[in-house]
Amino acid sequence: MPRPREFDDITALDAAMETFWTKGYEATSTAELCESTGLGRGSLYNAFGSKHELYEAAVGRYTEVGYAATIEILRAPGTPTERVRALLHWVIDTDLADPSRRGCMAINASVDTAGRTDPVTDLTRRHFQRLEQALREVLEEGQRAGEFATDRDLTRMARTLQSTYYGLRVLGAVTQDRAALLDVAEGALAALR
Amino acid sequence: MPRPREFDDITALDAAMETFWTKGYEATSTAELCESTGLGRGSLYNAFGSKHELYEAAVGRYTEVGYAATIEILRAPGTPTERVRALLHWVIDTDLADPSRRGCMAINASVDTAGRTDPVTDLTRRHFQRLEQALREVLEEGQRAGEFATDRDLTRMARTLQSTYYGLRVLGAVTQDRAALLDVAEGALAALR
DNA sequence: GACGTTTTGTACACATCAATCAAAAATGAG
DNA sequence: CTCATTTTTGATTGATGTGTACAAAACGTC
């Protein structure tokens, strides 16, 4: 009986996510969100409540999509070494190909909300933990396959790889030096053996 | 013959740096900068030109002070292994002890100015390169001392360690799990051997 | 002690911000 | 067709933002 929405929630959310990702939370105005989503002010507030709630939803959307993409790479066919390398090369390629050099939105969001008590911080924290777990699974498989060192603690290796991965994303948003980023990737792989 | 300033430029700059570091560029208002520096509007603009120029100066100040502190640790007495460990433990301690969880201001600044053509981006890029060079020197010394692997490329090892370091700073601003961060530190050291 | 110069304080201009509100429009059920 | 409900539209509101203008104040110098 009510009037139906003229827009798709996910489509609008994706558009808002892109805008927040590109400009950051504070630098994004509600007018820009209206423009990128195609919604009017009223519709935007009616659908998402407030700028900050929309931001939370956008970060949540990013972590879901990003995690799914990561998992897909880490569970693709191939040896564990190949799959970890594929993940690292993938972020190098995407970070370098992005003309706006946005890097990883989860990192950006954790910087944007640093210090504050913010639901977004919990989202990013959870995202980081899920990545650690996903990496641990690949490393464990690699240990069983004899590709990775077995005389070292699995959790420690996973956390170190995760840390290198996030550093790679920080550097990938700043530098254009592909060789330097590939060095990091190969160094991270060498550290597993 | 002119009227002398009532404040010290470096002191004011340090105060502005702290504010930008804590809140980020966009979320910091000029009123807050006046409050933290103790300067009036006129004095602030007269001395630093604009909010953005002040930000550039603040980031420049951070990179200088931060680089000096890093170098001091990396060139302190002790074996290369001990010095790298000291650096990693130092950032873990400072990141966890900071109640506002600000992380590394160079990383934050690179996120704040991502995509834009901004002098700050050059500052952070240069900062990252200097850290890479400093790490390379310690690693080279460690290779000569027989502490680190000599069958791997020095630059590659330095870049990987650098990346792990920055990942550690990202995680250090989000988590409270000291054991996880220490895992990263020990994993980074194990990767050098 | 007067002058030129810079700093300081404050008021203000002008833009932009997030959010609200009320009326009109669009739907399906009865 | 009528009604209840939600969406849409666009104007508006009140706060806040950065930057400027200007006059008074504080120095060193002559």
Question: How does this structure look, described?
Answer:
The structure is a homodimer of 193-residue chains. The first copy, chain A, contains nine helices and no strands. By secondary structure, chain A is mainly alpha-helical. In chain A, helix 4 (51-74) packs parallel to helix 7, helix 5 (80-97) packs antiparallel against helix 9 (178-190) and helix 6 (105-112) packs antiparallel against helix 7 (119-144). Chain A has helices at residues 9-23, 30-37, 41-48, 51-74, 80-97, 105-112, 119-144, 154-172, 178-190. The first copy, chain A, is elongated, with a radius of gyration of 19 Å. The interface between A and B is large, with 48 and 48 residues.
SSE topology:
2 copies of one chain form a homodimer.
Chain A: H1 9-23, H2 30-37, H3 41-48, H4 51-74, H5 80-97, H6 105-112, H7 119-144, H8 154-172, H9 178-190
The structure holds a DNA duplex (30 and 30 nucleotides).
N-to-C CA distance of chain A: 63 Å
* Strand content range of chain A: under 5%
Output the radius of gyration of chain A: 19 Å
Helix content of chain A: over 70%
Shape of chain A: elongated
Give the helix tally of chain A: 9
Beta strands of chain A, count: 0
Low-confidence stretches of chain A: none
Give the averaged pLDDT of chain A, no decimals: 97
**Greatest contact pair?**
A-B, 48 and 48 residues
Indicate the multimeric state.
homodimer
Helix-and-strand structural type of chain A: mainly alpha
| Order of helix and strand elements from N to C terminus of chain A | HHHHHHHHH
State the major sheet of chain A: none
